[in-house]
Design a protein that fits this description.
The protein is mainly α. It is 66% helix and 0% strand.
């Protein structure tokens, strides 16, 4: 059974929010929430499973979400970040992430967006 963790944004993370900082927090959130999913997939494929390798896979997934919305990972707008979060939530659900976990993390990301 896959273990899903609940990531919580810290108040200190919300200080001086920028689109780049928000993007990085979204990556961190997705990493913590989907770490076990990526670990199992990489193991099944015979790939390295260090935290660095898992993080790189998550960054790749977020980059693909930006590509899907024709956004710019390196210079995101707030609107692109909204759209990317929806893409990532849809993917997480498709991978079997329970609805309550997806909604928890969307709630954390709303806090990030509220800091703009």
């Amino acid at each position: 059974m896959v273990e899903f963790k609940r990531w919580n944004v810290r108040t200190t993370d919300l200080v001086d929010m920028t689109p780049i900082k928000a993007r990085d927090l979204i990556v961190k959130c997705f990493f913590e929430a989907q770490k076990e999913t990526f670990l199992r997939s990489r193991k099944d494929l015979g790939l390295d499973t260090s935290d660095e390798d898992l993080y790189a896979s998550v960054v790749g997934a977020v980059r693909m979400a930006f590509n899907e919305i024709a956004g710019d990972f390196d210079n995101p707008s707030k609107e692109q970040l909204f759209q990317v979060v929806e893409v990532l939530a849809r993917k997480a659900k498709a991978w079997g992430t329970p609805e309550d976990i997806v909604e928890h993390h969307k709630g954390q990301i709303k806090k990030i967006f509220g800091a703009f």
